[in-house]
Amino acid sequence: MRDAVVTPEGDRIRWVELPGGTPARVYVHGLGATSPAYFAASAVHPLLAGRRSLLVDLLGHGHSDRPEGFGYTLEEHADALAAALTVAGAQGAELIAHSMGGAVAIVLADRHPHLVSRLVLVDANLDPVPPRPAAAGSSGIAAYTEEEFLAGGWAEVRDRAGAHWWSTMRLAGRTALYRSAVHLAAGTTPTMRELLLQLTIPRTFLLPEADAPLPGADALRAAGVAVVPVPDCGHNVMLDNPEGFARATATALDPTD
């Protein structure tokens, strides 16, 4: 386990690191998740192994610190991740980022372009979503006030999320989970989609084949973003179809191979 101080108050981001060649690959989890649990098998898959790999937990999640005074906006997550990658010497990294992590990765590439050479977005959030009571994800959490969520709303979210998601969601600080969800649902200005369209690095968006076509796919492709459906999976592409995910990701990272 490695770590880096990423806030003036001394809060630390932590990551599991696998040795290998450069450029580094950085794996970033989604809301209420943790990168080692979601990406360890992918990072050592024969199609992806051999590269220096950082399985990073964002602030408030997994093994990283859970500061109560942190805002947990997508921009703040991206800046904290940038600080960690700078300490790790992982400039020009290839980012493989799931769900909320994909939104953070887009913002990171926009705000700290020297740190990111390529993006593989795994069913990432691109657009704001309105609060939706009774939903399990960011829109459901955002339907509470922070006081309501901390006072007991979190237990309702736990019951809706189910045992698998809760197994990692329970590791997140409740304040961190709430604020991350609210800011993910609200999105950024410009939106994550608009930022993604403006980037010039190689970009791939993986989505479950059952959810295709991706809204706005034609505009993404016109801007150079490869949109790749993966069969036999839901939102957790890397867990539902490890072989399909590894094959699609390997192609995205080395399209000439």
UniProtKB/TrEMBL annotation:
Alphabetic keyword roster: Hydrolase
GO MF terms, alphabetically ordered: hydrolase activity
Domain of life of the native organism: Bacteria
Entries under SUPFAM superfamilies matching the protein: alpha/beta-Hydrolases
Annotated ranges, domain AB hydrolase-1: 26-128
Presence of keyword Hydrolase: yes
Record's protein name: Alpha/beta hydrolase
Organism, as annotated: Streptomyces yangpuensis
Lineage start: Bacteria, Bacillati, Actinomycetota, Actinomycetes, Kitasatosporales
